[in-house]
């Protein structure tokens, strides 16, 4: 293009924005289910800290009361 600032392709801009929005939504829903440290699924919930834990995180909550997330998730959502 001979112009310094060529016009934006609006279809491409809209497609990119939609992709980024979906990616952000997908990431936010996954972040609730997957441990950011160990990339394992949150299968446990620490009642003292009121936070989810994966199997590897469980070792740091060994003296805490821990329950499966399926039992505690409805109460703490």
Automatic annotation (TrEMBL):
InterPro entries: Znf_B-box. It comes from the Eukaryota. Residues 30-69 form the B box-type domain. Keywords: Metal-binding, Zinc, Zinc-finger. SUPFAM superfamilies: B-box zinc-binding domain. GO terms for molecular function: zinc ion binding. It holds the Pfam family zf-B_box. This is B box-type domain-containing protein. It comes from Cirrhinus mrigala (Mrigala). The lineage of its organism: Eukaryota, Metazoa, Chordata, Craniata, Vertebrata.
């Amino acid at each position: 293009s001979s112009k310094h600032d060529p016009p934006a392709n609006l279809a491409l801009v809209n497609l990119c924005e939609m992709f980024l929005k979906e990616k952000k939504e997908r990431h936010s829903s996954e972040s609730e289910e997957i441990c950011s440290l160990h990339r394992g699924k949150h299968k446990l919930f620490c009642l003292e800290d009121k936070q989810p834990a994966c199997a590897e995180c469980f070792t740091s909550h060994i003296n805490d009361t821990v329950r499966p997330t399926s039992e505690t998730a409805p109460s703490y959502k």
